[in-house]
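Suppose you are handed only these lines of text.
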Amino acid sequence: MRVIRLHAPFDLRMHEEPVPQVKPDEVLIRVKSVGVCASDLHYYKEGRIGTNVVEKPLIIGHEPSGVIEEVSAEVVGLRKGDRVAIEPAKPCRECKFCRQGYTNVCKSVEFFGTPPIDGALREFVAWPARLAIPIPENVSFDEAAMVEPLSVGVYAVKVSDMKGGETIAILGAGAIGLSVLQAAKLKGADKIIVTEPVAERRQVALKLGAHTVIDPSQGNVIEQALAANGGNEPDIVFECAGEPETFAQAVEIARPLGTVVIVGIPSADEYSFPASPSRRKGLTIKLLRRSRGVTEESIEMVSRGLVNVASFATHTFPLEKTREAFELAAAKTDGVIRAVIHVDE
Ligand SMILES: [Zn+2]
Ligand SMILES: [Zn+2]
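From them, the structure of the protein bound to zinc ion can be written out as follows.
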């Protein structure tokens, strides 16, 4: 089978490798669509995310969908030909946190495309059957690949403890920010303010239900955000850009006793924000780790048309053009939100 390995920053190469063997609890999945995530871009550009370092050639990619090709004897409920979304995380299910349901913070988790675990940019993956979730007929493979970023947005809104009726700000309108937007709207957010430097992404945010979009290049973001809400600070701020300035803006924008949810991943392995506003306002700052327990719910949201994730998959590429896909996603040009690899084209 063809696979794409990252050898060093900016060095993606195609290889021919054997199709993986399935273990007794696994299924073999023919990979269809794989989204290129901002975290994949950290590995592509920097060779690492914090202390996770690519030390030997790694298959990256963790937003896949596919078709069941082979089912092990022990597996029930799945058949060859089933169309599936694929959970990229394989938690240990035995540690204290897993047993309490907090699989997203399992220290022994294996996660697609996170060193040393190979990811999804290949023709076949062998993965536990319980992590292959059948999708309804009306959900496309591209949409199923977008279920992973959507799940992160759905989980971020849960973590924020949003009740409905709040004013929220979302800093950054990539696939994650736009997922937060749609999940927050469904949860009953009263007013949604989005800051985003890329014009096409601001347009998509408006289409998906943002009330106000702000271009950070047009002056002070904090003043613009407050002006958009009659001078009042938002109740909840979601940082979804991962840039040094947006971490600082998040705490400046939030209201006293408000909540800031940090979703973005910084390039330098450090967050920094000013102490005075955070402390004086008594903010609650929450850090998000991936998602947990919301995949089925997210698939249903897509299937019922409650969210639009098809709009994320703006550009598609065959496997041999993976490099072009990563370059486009990194440049954020041409209105790209998610570049999606169609593995079997
Ligand atoms: Zn992702
Ligand atoms: Zn665990």
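What can we learn from it? Residues 195 and 214 are 5 Å apart (CA to CA). DSSP finds eleven helices and 19 strands in the chain.
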